[in-house]
Amino acid sequence: MKKLMVGMALTATLATAVTPGFGSIGGNQEKAYAATVTYKVTASKLNVRSGAGTTYGIIGSVVKGQTLSVMSKSGSWYKINYNGRTGYVSSDYVQTSGTTTPPAESTTYTVTA
Q1: Pairs from 77-81 (Cβ < 8 Å, separation ≥ 24)
Q2: Residue 61 lies in a domain
Q3: Is pTM, for the whole model, over 0.85?
Q4: Residue 58: which domain range?
């Protein structure tokens, strides 16, 4: 019986370690979305900054019509890949087009043992 209990505990520990969201029932779980969104600069010249805000230094600039490689959004700033570096641009001067597709519903499993 003791071996069975140890085996079940080990199985539960491994399942928690390798199954996303398994150990955080009711907690914050991120959802991935399939994106087909294009981000284009609308300003004639848009500064790329080292952080999400105007107090951060300028590391470069992008021009009107240029397509951006956006990694994420932080407030009103897009985090972008700029010449191999991480940079930020104001979303006020970026036009988006396209859609994001929500993920398929996930399946919930209940342990009955």
Answers
A1: 77/52, 77/53, 78/39, 79/52, 80/39, 80/48
A2: yes
A3: no
A4: 34-96
